[in-house]
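Continuing the series of single-chain predictions for the mutant panel. This is the parent chain; the variants come on the following pages.
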Amino acid sequence: INSGSGRIELTGEFIDSDSIDDGVDLAGSQNSLFAQSGIGASETLTVTSVDDLRVDTASGSIRIDLVADRNINLADLRTGGGNDSETSIRHRGTDRLSVSKVVNESGRVEIVTDDASIDVLNTNDQPSVFAGSEGQIRLETLSTDSDIIVRGDVANESGDLNMISRRNVALPAPAEIRSLRGTVQLIAGLDSGNSLTVLDLQDGSRVDAGQGNVELNSVGDVYVSSIESRSTGEAIRIVSARGEIIDSGDERIDLIA
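Parent structure:
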């Protein structure tokens, strides 16, 4: 389906790709997809030429491949989850991927870009990314020329929360990363060997792992704002392989464990 610069709206029990065709399924500036039992759950949807993507399914998985020819905003992606569900977004192309709202009420969330940076926006409708129950959250950039920037809140309940960048990870204030009991892991410069990579928790940002633990790892400098864990084991671990560990500021207590 190609609507050019127009809008595509699909509603059904479920929405899947045609397994016979390996090409693009949807091409339109604004896509709104509504289902009861999953979107791309059986056959991943491939979407291109989109500025603004909205997806809502009462239950089941959301699986979408984005072929980017412009900046894309994940405006509102929601599923009730269940039955080992996942929200999986794979992005190809150098144009930035913005994230306004991605929610899986009972399952995992995974957002991976091949070449582009991931920018989690602060929409004042918290959190911007959420996984309920034991759902894991994974944000990852695979290119050494891309970053992860978190401006809003990213939160889950019991699963691990991983942010992995081959270059920089930045949390401008008032960004918050929260888990009730999962491991929170932030990695900057993975596999790059670049000592200029930075893990930048700016003053006023916050990481709270609840009863879980926090792991911060960067090839280059690590800037520390407010980090909290109530784990009874190794609560907080910070590693800078070739840089320094630096206090970002004094708005909050830096380390609480």
